[in-house]
């Protein structure tokens, strides 16, 4: 049974091949690429060597085959992955702008991705689970998926495991105020919260990053890992703030980089590494994720990540030279 469990939307992405081609105009697309923030995290964690399970639903169609075959190829336990014969696999259309921003058009609420139930989790599936990761986007995709996220978080927490949250705010799906409210039950159980950019203040309603961190730590969160893209990341705990410098890469596609960062930080932490060491690995994995086209194509095996870190003069502790 898996030790790290994630739950949520599994989908395919259809992506513009050129920048500054809006979704309301004819232009070329590339895909399908297997995707979904929780699925990307599961792939990244499994490729780093962790025991990972994914709870989700795809359609009984070619896109569902695309997603499931990739998850299985990465070594993910798919015994809680369901195939829905009545709904299509979720789809996200993505356009890129020259300034690095993206726009999304989702087909999710009426897709198989939103129809996830605790009933599809096999008996004994959580027996070895030590950690569960929840995405704010998953909480926003509908009542059924949200309740399954709550169920898994409560069960792992009740059994003595740990919980993490990536707010992964998607204003395309739900107003920020509503997302904040539905994230709160997870925040109350979370040891680790991993926001990006302005998500920290959006999640907490605080006027500043510092106040947002203070509010989360006051609720029992042990670590707030603020993802800062090309500027690296900053880890906030009761002992203060620790800035982790970035790794240098040539960005190709940023989609999924934050999910890969989450995966690496969780895996290293679960292995017993301190926060600074875990944050360094997370920065490396997040940076590498941007170097390949496609959201799940940017996951790397541990050997590749360690070689990349060594090349940049920041070797992983205990790694062979």
Key terms for this structure?
21% strand; 321 residues; UDP-N-acetylmuramoyl-L-alanine:D-glutamate ligase; alpha/beta; 34% helix
Alpha carbon gyration radius:
18 Å
Task: Give the helix proportion (percent range).
Answer: 25-40%
Distance between the termini: 33 Å
SS summary, helix count: 10
CATH superfamily: Ribokinase
Looking at the structure, the CATH topology is: UDP-N-acetylmuramoyl-L-alanine:D-glutamate ligase
Which structural class do the helices and strands define?
alpha/beta
Strand content: 15-25%
* Helix and strand element order: EEEHEHEEEEHHEHEHHEEEHHH
Task: List the domain count as a whole number.
Answer: 1
Tally of DSSP β-strands: 13
The main sheet orders its strands as 5-4-1-8-9-10-11-12-13
Mean pLDDT: 93
- Any low-confidence stretches, pLDDT <50, length ≥5? none
Shape: globular
**CATH architectural arrangement:** 3-Layer(aba) Sandwich
At the first level of CATH, what is the class? Alpha Beta
The main pleated sheet reads as: 9 strands, mixed
